[in-house]
Design brief:
Blueprint (H helix, E strand, L loop, with lengths): L1 H9 L24 E2 L5 E5 L2 E8 L3 E2 L3 E2 L2 H9 L2 E3 L3 E5 L3 H14 L9 H4 L2 H14 L11 H15 L2 E2 L5 H10 L8 E5 L3 H10 L5 H13 L1 H13 L2 H5 L6 H10 L2 H4 L6 H19 L2 E7 H5 L4 H7 L3 E3 L4
Parallel strand pairs: 1-5, 3-10, 6-10, 7-9
Antiparallel strand pairs: 2-3, 2-11, 4-8
Helix pairs in contact: 2-7, 3-8, 5-9, 6-9, 9-12
Length: 328
């Protein structure tokens, strides 16, 4: 139940639950057999203490074999391993109360009043959606009743998988295994939230519309124009080509989709609209703690937080830490 609600908050692809993923064609499927090194590590330092940071991307090449000796070697020398931040959502209604919420929460994936996508989308957008659905999800009927934001999630997942990419991480298991080998319990910085009125919140969400048309529009644009760039970006990450990563911007579907949810009245009235900033603050506190307490630490965060001017590493630089890219 907690994962379901957090999925709404952080826009995890929960809309794919129960979907029949199928494809009528395969486009230049990427098959990866040789081990790939991935990017180098960014070094954050101050007063002789170091935090080595791996930037990750999604999607990645399907069945990619990651040559992780560099990361494993750093973890062998580390006193702390940091994972990306996450939300720890709680609601004080007991086990059976949470179980009773599940059907309603699942129902919130759908449009209010049993409307279908053809009822809520402009004709031109519905025509685009229908063409992409036919190509990437021809046997899925349930998607027609989903909200645009959830339909976008389903469509995105199936499209990237269709061209030989995957959303599953190739780094998480390796990092956790190396930490376990060194008897380090990975630190997952968590933002603790209490939802005091889950029944009311879910009902409000279920009964209200979201301003999520742009989310679906951006997702469709990504699928129509950026799949080749996504494959190139995944290959650039696999080969450690940071310059190529910087030069391969993709349609920013995630900002449009997360904004549709976080800026909704349901989330704003409960103070959840500033989650990205609060998650960054939680991670920064954990990173500074690791840097203070250990001579060497390791962290893995999304590449956008490594490279962007307002990302996590830029925030550490503003706090007085030296940030060096691989090779500097």
């Amino acid at each position: 139940m907690r994962r379901l609600i957090c999925g709404w908050l952080l826009l995890l692809p929960l809309g794919a639950i129960g979907a029949e993923a199928a494809s009528s064609s395969k486009i230049d499927e990427v098959v990866v057999s040789a081990s790939r090194p991935g990017p180098g590590l960014w070094r954050v330092s101050k007063d002789g203490h170091e935090l080595w940071v791996l930037g990750t991307v999604s999607p990645v090449l399907r069945k990619m074999k990651w040559e992780a000796s560099l990361v494993e070697g750093v973890i062998d020398e580390s006193g702390a391993v940091l994972l990306p931040p996450n939300v720890d959502l709680d609601f004080d209604i007991g086990f059976f109360g949470k179980a009773m919420l599940i059907p309603s929460a699942l129902g919130a994936r759908n449009n209010p009043n049993k409307a279908k996508l053809k009822d809520v989308l402009p004709p031109a957008d519905y025509a685009r959606f229908s063409a992409l659905k036919l190509k990437f999800m021809p046997r899925n009927r349930s998607i027609e009743k989903r909200r645009p934001i959830m339909a976008a999630s389903d469509l995105y997942k199936n499209a990237v998988e269709d061209v030989g990419l995957q959303l599953d991480s190739v780094t998480a298991k390796v990092i956790k295994r190396a930490a376990k080998r060194n008897k380090i319990k990975p630190t997952e910085p968590r933002l603790e939230l209490m939802l005091n009125d889950p029944k009311v919140a879910i009902k409000e969400l279920k009964d209200s519309s979201l301003d999520d048309l742009q989310c679906l529009q951006q997702t469709m644009t990504f699928i129509e124009t950026d799949l080749d760039a996504a494959k190139a970006r995944a290959s650039a990450w696999a080969d450690g080509n940071v310059d190529a990563l910087k030069q391969l911007p993709l349609t920013d579907r995630r900002t449009a989709c997360s904004g549709a949810l976080l800026n909704s009245p349901v989330m704003r009235k409960r103070g959840f609209d500033d989650l990205p900033a609060r998650l960054q603050a939680v991670w920064l506190d954990a990173a500074e703690k690791a840097l203070l307490e250990h001579a060497v630490s390791f962290a893995a965060i999304p590449m956008q937080e490594v490279l962007s001017a307002d990302g996590y590493l830029a925030a550490l630089a503003k706090r007085g830490y030296l940030v060096e890219a691989p090779g500097e």
